[in-house]
Design brief:
This protein has 211 residues and is of the alpha/beta class. It has seven helices and nine strands, in the order βββαααββααβαβββα.
Length: 211
Amino acid sequence: MEKRDMWKDVNVHPWRGENYGSPTIFPFRTLILGESNYTEAEKFDENLVINCVRDDIGSAGNRDTKGFCKFSTKIRRVIFGRHTEITPCQFWSNAAFYNFVQYLVGSKSKERPTAAMWKGSSAAFFEVLSVLRPERILVLGKGNWNNLLSNISHVRIDETTASISVDGCNALAGYIFHPSSGRGFSYQRWQPVAERVVLGHNLAVNSDAPR
């Protein structure tokens, strides 16, 4: 658990796996960037994301059928393939996870963050980058991606990827459709993108030019 006084602008603390700094299943320090926080108001606190990941690691049985566990399974499969044997414990021990919008959007994912929520969350994200210093960022959701590029210095590489730079943190970022987006999420379409962003060695990070 992150200490409260470690974060100035971050309301919901990121998950950081014990091997994040020297990952064993990724070639780079990898941040999974979700969009928003959804839960009942009484459950919304700084440990919401951390507790979701811990529950995922500790779940068994029909774990892939609902909630964060189902979401987590899709993330692992879109990076490593639909038949991957990498477990939640292995995955989260090596990754960081953070939701960009730092407010409670609602109890269900159908509710959308407001413009004020997006804008008010930028400082927290910059703080997370300065602390975690990821080398690769997998962005979940096109709205999340568009907001990110509108608020951060970047150089476009192609339709789905860009190199970003914030206070000396240079990273390759790329987006896929959000795993909770239902019909819009296709492994055939997004697995090659996720694999290339997270595992690929041939994409250079160029921080010399502004967006």
